[in-house]
Every structure is written in structure tokens, then in C-alpha cells.
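Page 37, continued from 36.
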């Protein structure tokens, strides 16, 4: 049974290409033309560790830490980090960030293990062609590699790990339904206009009453997605009352 629901306004929290597939022509074509050719952002991997001991006891007392391996000597090398996840861990680890949720009142633990997460650049192509088991095995090997790296820098860390999980660009693609696993919407390209012209993207689309309430309608990341949704809601409400 097909059920139709009518609405004057739709706030879409997805990527434009996903939204276009839901539209009939010619609206689909108008949306595709508006966003075609725009590069999407990078993707990420995340390695999550639950530890039974407060991380500060290992010397990990800051919320955020950036680790640049010795082989990293330029911004070009940082980009090279994204390719390393396309194989098993070797002699080089990628550049990565550490988020220690034990250093803030995150409200995530509730008496359970403290979350320590590692995040870095990834690409969907790194995981193409792998079977489910092959992908799972490679994820485990990368978890081993990062757990060992944390233990070298913060002795005792590995022995306190009780839970762990590895998510990659394919995870972002599958869970978020975002093209190429992009986590920041469109790629942040240099502006073509002066800053006085305002932000280059808007939740508005070529379809009246249809707004992008996602990172693709504004800036990237969690903050960008929330701001885009808020702007989309305010814009829609203003247009409904005029």
C-alpha cells in the first residue's frame, strides 16, 4: 500500500544526490544541475576504545591531541595518510587525532568504560573489493596497530582496554548514506567571492519548499549540520509567514 502525505515544506537531512533520487522529473533534473560537479569532502576512520582505568593515569590527560608521525614532513604527507588504510598496517601509521572523553564531563560513561577515540582521514576506495570477512580482519589489524601505538605513548593503556570498535569510510557511506563516505558535506573549496557576500552555500534548493538540513546545505561536521538545520528551519518558517 502506498501512502501519500502532503506538506508545504520539506527539510531533507541528506545529500543532494540522495534527495534527487526521491524526486520525479523535472524537479530531479533541476536539483542535479544545481549541485553537479561539486566535490564532496573527505571521509574518516574512527577507532574507539573503552578503557576501565581513567586515561589520566596513563598520562593521557587532555581532551584533544594531534599525532603527526615522524615520516610526516609536509601537508602533502598528511594527504598521503588517507591512502594508508587501503592496506594492512605497516611501518607507518597515518596522522591522527585523539579524543579523550575522560577529560571532559561528556556524560558518556555512566559508570562504564571511558571512551578514547582515534580519528583520521580515510577513503571509500580503500575498502573497495573486500569481502565482509576481509574488511573485518583489516579493521581488527588497524585496531591492534592503534592500540599498540597508544600503549607505547601511554604505557598501560592496552591492558585497560575492555571494548573496541573500528569504523571506516564504508561505515560512513552505509550508515549515513552519504556519497563516498563524505562526512563534511561538500569539500571546503576556496571562496569565489569576498566574505562580504556571505556564506557560499544555503539550505535553499531550486525546488520551492525543499531545504537541505544537512552539512551539504552549509559547513561541514556536527556543528555545520546543526547550523544548517537551524537555518533551514528559520528560512522555511519565515517564507511560510510571508
Amino acid at each position: 500500500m502506498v501512502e501519500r502525505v502532503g506538506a508545504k515544506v520539506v527539510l531533507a537531512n541528506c545529500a543532494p544526490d540522495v534527495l534527487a533520487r526521491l524526486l520525479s522529473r523535472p524537479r530531479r533534473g533541476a536539483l542535479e544541475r544545481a549541485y553537479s560537479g561539486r566535490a564532496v569532502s573527505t571521509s574518516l576512520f574512527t577507532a574507539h576504545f573503552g578503557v576501565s582505568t581513567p586515561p589520566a593515569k596513563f598520562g593521557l590527560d587532555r581532551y584533544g591531541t594531534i599525532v603527526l608521525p615522524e615520516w610526516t614532513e609536509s601537508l602533502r604527507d598528511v594527504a598521503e595518510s588517507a591512502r594508508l588504510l587501503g592496506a594492512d598496517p605497516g611501518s607507518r601509521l597515518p596522522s591522527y587525532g585523539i579524543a579523550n572523553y575522560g577529560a571532559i564531563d561528556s556524560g558518556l560513561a555512566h559508570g562504564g568504560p571511558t571512551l578514547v577515540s582515534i580519528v583520521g582521514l580515510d577513503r571509500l576506495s580503500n575498502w573497495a573489493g573486500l569481502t565482509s570477512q576481509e574488511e573485518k580482519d583489516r579493521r581488527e589489524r588497524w585496531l591492534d596497530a592503534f592500540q599498540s601505538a597508544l600503549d607505547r605513548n601511554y604505557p598501560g593503556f592496552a591492558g585497560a582496554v575492555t571494548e573496541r570498535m573500528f569504523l571506516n569510510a564504508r561505515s560512513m557511506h552505509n550508515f549515513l548514506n552519504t556519497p563516498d563516505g563524505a562526512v563534511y558535506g561538500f569539500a571546503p573549496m576556496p571562496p569565489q567571492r569576498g566574505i562580504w557576500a556571505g556564506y557560499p552555500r544555503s539550505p535553499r534548493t531550486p525546488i520551492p519548499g525543499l531545504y537541505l538540513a544537512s552539512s551539504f546545505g552549509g559547513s561541514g561536521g556536527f556543528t555545520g549540520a546543526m547550523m544548517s538545520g537551524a537555518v533551514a528551519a528559520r528560512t522555511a518558517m519565515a517564507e511560510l509567514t510571508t
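Strands lie at 10-12, 43-51, 64-67, 96-100, 114-122, 161-167, 210-212. Flag for discussion at group meeting. The mean pLDDT is 90.
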